Amino acid sequence: MNGRHLLLVIGAEARAIYGRASAKLAVVVALLTGVVVLLALQWLQGQAETIQANGNPITNMVEFSGPAAAGWALRVRNFFVLPLVLLLATAASFAGEIGDQTLREVLVRPVPRWWILLSKALVLSSLAALTLLLTLAPALGGGLALFGAEGPTTTGAVLLGYAASLLSDVGLIALGLLASTFVRSVGGVVVAMMLILMGDMGLRVVLKGMAWVGAAWAEDVGRALPGAALACWEGWQGEWDPWAFAGMAVLLLVGFGGTLWRFQRMDVP
Amino acid sequence: MASDALVTRGLTRRFGGRTAVSALDLRVQEGDVYGFLGPNGAGKTTAIRCMLGLIGRDAGEVEIFGEKDPVRQRAHVGAMVETPAFHKWLSARDNLRRATAFAGQGTAADIELALERVGLQGRADEKVQGYSLGMKQRLGIARALVGKPRLLILDEPTNGLDPRGMREIRDLLLELARRDRLTIFVSSHLLGEVEQLCSRVGILERGRMVAEGTVEELLRRSGAAVTEVDLECADAVALGRALEGIAGVSVVGDGEGDRLRVRLDGLSPAELNQRLVQAGVAVSALVPVVKSLEDLFLTLTSQELT
Asked: Count of CB atoms within 10 A of residue B6's CB?
């Protein structure tokens, strides 16, 4: 057991995770998102005369610039599909391996369990980063080439949005790994996570309602819930919410810490 | 004197109110081919999982080559537990590469050698999803061999193999034990196979070790060694009369033609032969009925073979 051994384990984990259909799907969806958003903006720009709202051409309402294209691509990327695919990749790499018993085959080797968890978290995070790059590159690069950089949206702001999205993805991975220690099937993890996040969303609506009728604390609590933490990336569009980042710190601690605690004690069939 | 390869002391594992493995003490010496026997549900796989650290234990300890740290222990071990599982979208060779990465040692040459030993080198680049159960079983053994183990722990390694495959694996294990001096711990309920393969055996019944030793030792200790002989004699009446006069001999069943089976109590087959000659009975054949491991197993476990 040494640094070289750990690197070998991470490499082996990378080959396994990147070889899965879910990782390939994540890569394709991420790339398509950047390209499709760029093409959609280009098409929209050409429709100034035909698409109007209240007599104003669409081109007056939508910003056309490289950073704006990258910003739209980020919004589309983070809307449901890619987080779901990342969650699938996470669940497949842990719950899936417990279920199909391939995890057992590495646990009989001379590696501590935390190495396995660390290598999975690192490789899944690298997959999340890769998908962000694959969305960003065509949207920003193509957008700069097609529309230029002029506009209210700055490249710096949108890049911060992508960086915060990576944090958000890592938070999702942490939750997915934790869920995998309870629900030992890919479908089960995805369903459980959807239910948790839907419950979280419902709770935030209730807390918002309570804040509206006078309970000021309720809004602050809602801003630190996991769902709000996972949406911390949205701050790039206006104001960053420190509560969301505080919530993310707790989420990462609970997610990875809880997974490690449970995994160390788990019976693996 | 050979050192201990695998030792368990008081190994215990419970599932709720059920004790799957109860205070298991066993000792496998370096160079042994140790057969771990027991009927289905006796706790063999649970015990193996405890030894490998796949599941926790409620009490007891495991030592492998004197090492108590579970991670360090596994550096000496190549294991196959139940039906081996693989990343099906990877080729056989890539699955073995993965195993060497997790083992932290082993080269491409080791992988090729392991594939050759189980006869899969010609199909190593095919994805495992196209493999039959028997091929997966062979690949599982190949995977256990990479990483330069000193101890192989194999749980039912011939499951899913046809008779030819079973024989090949048995020969391979014997070769690994003799040529490579590997210590092998193999669980099975195929008693004939274990009898041919193993130098020592342990029999598990309801989570407890009920017998441990060499096959010969166990047969002798249980008194299951030669206790019956088949006699062949043209003059059955003279034979019957002579047997009545010899103490410690009783006839088993009615006999068949000129054949008769007798049970000996404190008398060896040679002594019986001598008495019959002295009585003037011309016995044309005297065949000792050798009890097998299967008989011993049935006696100790009081169960039907599965």
From this structure: 23
Check A105 against B103: CB less than 8 A apart. Answer: no
CATH number of the CATH domain containing B243: 3.30.70
CA contacts within 13 A on the Cβ side of A139: 30
Q: Which domain holds residue A59?
A: 3-265
Domain co-membership, B14 together with B159:
yes
CATH of the domain at B195: 3.40.50.300
pLDDT tens-digit series, residues A213-224: 988 889 888 888
Which 3 state secondary structure label does DSSP give B146? coil
Number of H helices, E strands in chain A: 14, 2
Token digits for B290? Answer: 């050798």
* A165, two tokens: 């999205």
In terms of residue numbers, what domain contains B247? Answer: 228-290
Angstrom distance (rounded) from CA A38 to CA B18: 62
Encode pLDDT of A130-166 as tens digits: 999 999 999 999 999 999 999 899 999 999 999 999 9
- B164 and B28 both lie in a single domain: yes
CB atoms < 10 A from the CB of B213, how many? 14
Q: Has this prediction a pTM greater than 0.80?
A: yes
B297 in a domain, yes or no?
no
DSSP-assigned letter for residue A93: H
Same domain, B266 and B203: no
Q: B72 in helix, strand or coil?
A: helix
Closest by CA to B32, choosing from B213, B295, B171, is B213
The dihedral built from the CA positions of residue A238, A240, A244 and A248, taken in this order, carries a sign that is positive
Mutation target vs A (from B98, B143, B151; most A CBs, 10 A cutoff): B98
ipTM exceeds 0.90: no
C-alpha distance from A266 to closest chain B C-alpha (Å):
7
Q: Does A100 touch chain B (CB under 8 A)?
A: yes
